[in-house]
Amino acid sequence: GEKLVEVKNVTKHFMINKKQRLTAVSNVSFDIYKGETFGLVGESGCGKSTIGRLLMRLYETTAGEIFFQGENIHARKSKEKEKLLYRKMQMIFQDPYSSLNPRMTVSDIIAEGLDIHQLVKNKKERQEKIDQLLEIVGLKPEDRNRYPHEFSGGQRQRIGIARALALEPDFIIADEPISALDASIQAQIVNLLKELQEQRGLTYLFIAHDLAMVKYISDRVGVMYLGKLVELAESEELYEQPLHPYTKALLSAIPLPDPRLERTREKIILKGEIPSPIDPPTGCRFHPRCPVKKEICVRLEPEWTEVKEGHIVLCHLYQ
Ligand code: SF4
Ligand code: MG
């Protein structure tokens, strides 16, 4: 496939105070292909949202580069190119409520981008476009004059999606878009995102905190732990043949639908808490919690190993 996004050796530090720095993302590389959904998974504090924000250019990288359609997104560019880039990459959020201005009607929320980017010629066209977008995301044209608080969580997520779609993006970063919703609503939003992807050839980065959430939407999945990308594989491969001990533990935490299988399955319980990213463990960052660690893991950081084509893991067991 054609690469739409390239994340190359990206590191992001934050200074906590004069002496301490937090490494939110540490030397992470991956590509996202045009038209795919790339799932990025990990517990809170693993750096997955930081990657989303780096892609949206809300942060600058400390080291490494990010390319979108072959261009370095953080490099200086003309105003026009800058504007186009803002339009082409859109984000939807976990809590659409906090990202929707409570004093604006749905119509104004959606139209804001249309106006900034001059995507409609006049009022009539603007109105038609808004109604069309509302319909596409499963809302009614009558909803246009209502305010965000008048909607349910799922409906608000639909407004957020309509706002993103208004700008005709190529790439959407969805940062935990379903985590705050009920299970039945989660499925509806995932289905909506899938439909939109098919109709519009969209590419997604889908960020989530557990593997169950990205399973049905992702073509490929990356697993992060404490700022590191520890495993990357095609979705089916990852769920059936997980390699990294952390991925195995995450997968064993997902309940199986069949209660008989669920009872007999071996659960991997990780000991301890996630260590602080301010002072991460030596060697492999997962070693204090790893059930199969070796002596080498404590002193030496593992390197990326491509075990099979497209299946990459960061663990001494596979080197
Ligand atoms: Fe466990 Fe060692 Fe692999 Fe880290 S490198 S996950 S500690 S076996
Ligand atoms: Mg987050």
From TrEMBL:
Pfam assignment, any one: ABC_tran
The ABC transporter domain, residue ranges: 5-251
Family annotation (CDD domains): ABC_NikE_OppD_transporters
SUPFAM superfamilies hit by this protein: P-loop containing nucleoside triphosphate hydrolases
GO biological process: peptide transport; transmembrane transport
Keyword hit for ATP-binding: yes
Residue ranges of the TM segments: none
Source organism superkingdom: Bacteria
GO molecular function: ATP binding; ATP hydrolysis activity
Keyword entries, A-Z: ATP-binding, Nucleotide-binding, Transport
InterPro entries: AAA+_ATPase, ABC_transp_ATP-bind, ABC_transporter-like_ATP-bd, ABC_transporter-like_CS, Oligopep_ABC_C, P-loop_NTPase
Coiled-coil region list: none
Classification via PROSITE patterns: ABC_TRANSPORTER_1 (PS00211), ABC_TRANSPORTER_2 (PS50893)
Family recorded in the similarity comment: Belongs to the ABC transporter superfamily.
Descriptive protein name: ABC transporter ATP-binding protein
Upper lineage: Bacteria, Bacillati, Bacillota, Bacilli, Bacillales
